[in-house]
């Protein structure tokens, strides 16, 4: 007898929407609404265990089969690709990956463009696909500061409301891609636990569809 299905959730920005989606799908999410710092949570009445992780760790847990499924931002799947199945676009966590900089900048005139980013792979691939040489300066946060301080010419970062750019006098120069939360599945679980995995995928997909039509 195999145990419960394990679902890895991204803590932080995606958490509230994920919990709401699961709740609408009929799951009792009371334990997760009041986790008291617990990172492993049982869902009463459904053979499911939820673990809470940082986004990039969600993909790692699913890759290694520790979690059967996971909810993670598309940005993370593109920045650190893993051999997992991406089975659904959950719609929430919507934002865009963009090139941003100061209004006065003409990046096209630069031979070597200096880019500050928490997403070095996405940034490099985007510019190299256009034949632009780049120096990537990897950042851990407060990326908007880099062009203001002269560390870089532009940034590649997530833009959601645009408030952070605006507050720091930066503008979107180019949109790279749209981002949203994705449901991912371990490749082995997809085959060996097909019935339970598909049941959960179906539950969530139904709710995503209802949400889209609302
Ligand atoms: N304004 C935003 N900034 C960053 N991520 C956003 C934003 N809006 C939606 N997202 C999505 O939410 C996901 C989770 O972001 P969040 O910042 O909560 O966690 P994280 O990636 O672990 O970052 P951190 O290390 O800053 O805590 C991102 O991977 C992205 O897909
Ligand atoms: O368009 P907005 O709604 O303003 O959101 C975008 C901002 O949010 C994220 O930063 P985060 O809050 O994660 O801070 P950090 O990167 O400095 O850690 C992102 O890196 C942008 O700075």
TrEMBL record:
Catalytic reaction annotation? 1-(5-phospho-beta-D-ribosyl)-ATP + diphosphate = 5-phospho-alpha-D-ribose 1-diphosphate + ATP
The Gene Ontology biological process terms listed for this entry are: L-histidine biosynthetic process
One GO MF term: ATP binding
The record, for CDD domains, names: PBP2_HisGs
**Keywords carried by this UniProt record:** Amino-acid biosynthesis, ATP-binding, Cytoplasm, Glycosyltransferase, Histidine biosynthesis, Nucleotide-binding, Transferase
Outline the extent of the ATP phosphoribosyltransferase catalytic domain: 55-205
Give, as one word, the top-level EC class: transferase
Q: Which Gene3D superfamilies match?
A: Periplasmic binding protein-like II
Q: What are the record's GO terms for cellular component?
A: cytoplasm
- Please name the pathway: Amino-acid biosynthesis; L-histidine biosynthesis; L-histidine from 5-phospho-alpha-D-ribose 1-diphosphate: step 1/9
Q: Name one Pfam family in it.
A: HisG
The cross-references to SUPFAM superfamilies, in alphabetical order and at most eight, read: Periplasmic binding protein-like II
Coarse class of the protein's main subcellular location? cytoplasm
Enzyme Commission code? 2.4.2.17
Protein's cellular compartments = Cytoplasm
Q: What does the comment on domains in this protein's record state? A: Lacks the C-terminal regulatory region which is replaced by HisZ.
Membership in a protein family: Belongs to the ATP phosphoribosyltransferase family. Short subfamily.
Sum up the protein's function in the record's words. Catalyzes the condensation of ATP and 5-phosphoribose 1-diphosphate to form N'-(5'-phosphoribosyl)-ATP (PR-ATP). Has a crucial role in the pathway because the rate of histidine biosynthesis seems to be controlled primarily by regulation of HisG enzymatic activity.
Assembly description: Heteromultimer composed of HisG and HisZ subunits.
Q: What is this protein called?
A: ATP phosphoribosyltransferase
Q: Which organism's genome codes for this protein?
A: Tindallia magadiensis
